[in-house]
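TL;DR need structure tokens for one chain.
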Amino acid sequence: MDFHEQQPIYLQIVDYVCEKILLKQWGKGDRVPSVRELAVTLEVNPNTVMRAYEFLQQKEIVYNQRGLGLFVADDGVKNARIYRQHEFLHKEVPAFFASMSLLQIGVEELEPMFKKYRKSKA
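>> reply
TL;DR here they are.
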């Protein structure tokens, strides 16, 4: 995983876990990698992974089963989507619109591209 400076690493790990859940690579009730496993995989400090997992527990995306580990919550997919939608709409979209305005790109120019993208993903 390539980390970038624009966002704290623990939030990038949160996004990584949410993506795994939204892509259904980790399903409802599935065990997620332990703090140590994910820290080794991503080559980060275990405390950073722990912080990400605590955040995900607060958002009810994962839950802890004492002695067994962390698991995807029953509403994990829904809650991951809600979290990611909020982040997208409040952080990425404003920057996107600012670039559109600066470059004088109209919404009508985006529609064909969006339709083509959706068609390719269907």
